[in-house]
Amino acid sequence: MSIGVICSKTLTEQLVNALTDDWQSYRSPARGYYDLLNIAINDKVVDTSVQEDAMPSVLLIETSYLNNKMTIGLYGKEGYATQHGIRVNFFGQMIPVDQYSHFQAYLEVRQGRPVNPMSPSRRGVIKDEALNKLCDFIRDSLFEYFSRAPIEDIDPLALVQFYRDYPAQASKLPCFVAARRKRYESGDDVNKMTSLFAPQVLSYVNPPLLLADKARVVREDGTVYSSEYGLHTFLELTGAAYKLIEADESRLDIRHLWWKPGEQAAFPSGCPQIFHKAGQWGLGTEHEPPAEWREINNHVVFAFSDPDNWSVENVDFMVGGADPQDFYQTDAWAGFDLRNREGRSYQEMSESYRGSCEREVRNLIGNAVPKNFSWEDLLRFVPEGEQIIAVSPVYRSKRKRNPDSVILLLGNNDGIIRLSLF
Asked: CA-CA distance, 91 to 137, in Å (whole number)?
């Protein structure tokens, strides 16, 4: 077939561009006819392939529906949903179907009439029983795939989206998604200390240890309060533990970590009463304490709520088995929250938080400055109008290479100030 057209030059240019221009070729009405027509305009071959965005980004299933080729998969690796969950290639015409889903299906119709296009056909598909049957087929195909595929071959993100799009069917699957919790590293802030490894697909048969997000902390008076952050400091004791991502929770035993801190440590008046002996831990339910309590011994553990971006004093810490001075120089940063900026810069927030930790150290050991002190640190302890004329290190013994304090000699030799180093 050859078509000749007599029209204005402008219309000619627009028609040629619509079919051959690379920039807008994805919108070309010729796309989709790849196996039906060979099209050329002014001797230039027109692209008739199927657009890439019509196909699932993560392919899961290749099947057929009423003797027509069909592919089903995840819309995108990012986990976003699409308004056009189905694309129908109806004898070359690409028809988007208004079906909101995280999954995308591509149906290539070359036989029969499995769906009923609107008129004009590119507007969409009539929402009738034929479309309902197609949607049911997609759902059931996905269910069969997740039921039979080997666990190691299942994309965790795809399974997560199936739980969210089809919760009733997903609850009958033999597998679920969880992510292993990362162990706390000393000095991590609140974002790092609650981080997870990549999600995994796991079986309901012999699942790993699943821990709920919040630790249950038992005070000395026997009252129990839930502290959101604390699990990760216990993972050296629990072994590998996982956070549930998507599952039928009624089929799983989700444990709650309980912590019973030991007796409170004695410190000078004005120091936070947050330090305890390490105490005991165990695994129970949300409301029932552990049947067996275990000694923590040589581990530093802590839990807290309400992280802060400005001052450690605003973080509700409960600490077990830690040296207070070491705690404020390292682990206290677990309560630092850089997400809640409130218009402040990172430098402002971190300097303020660091300053608050240094104040707590001084409360513990008296007047003190950091080991890498600056002149500004020293001048805080010098009375107005006085000058420092000498700084002398003080060693605990002759064997020590590093001093544990410094002595400031003030002008006219009429005063000295001793500052501990931390």
From this structure: 21
pTM comes to 0.77
CB 71 within 8 A of CB 85: no
The 3-state DSSP class for residue 129 equals: helix
Angle at 344 (CA atoms; ends 340, 349), nearest 5 degrees: 80
Closest by Cα among 200, 143, 140, 198 to 176: 200
* Residue 335 CA: distances (Å) to CA of 17, 151, 187, 193, 387: 59, 37, 10, 9, 38
Instruction: Kindly list the distances between the CA atom of residue 189 and the CA atoms of 52, 164, 181, in Å, as whole numbers in the listed order.
Output: 42, 31, 15
265 to each of 181, 203, 280, 361, how far by Cα in Å?
A: 30, 45, 16, 15
Q: Which amino acid is at 68?
A: N
Task: Give residues with Cβ within 8 angstroms of 116, minimum separation 6.
Answer: 125, 126, 128, 130, 131
Q: Identify whether the C-beta of residue 20 lies closer than 8 Å to the C-beta of residue 12.
A: no
Residue 79 makes CB contacts below 8 A (sequence gap 6+) with 102, 157, 160, 161
Distance CA 270, CA 375 (A): 27
Write out residues in the chain with pLDDT < 50, as ranges: none
State the Cα–Cα distance between residues 58 and 161, nearest whole angstrom: 12
| Beta bridge pairs of residue 200 | 178
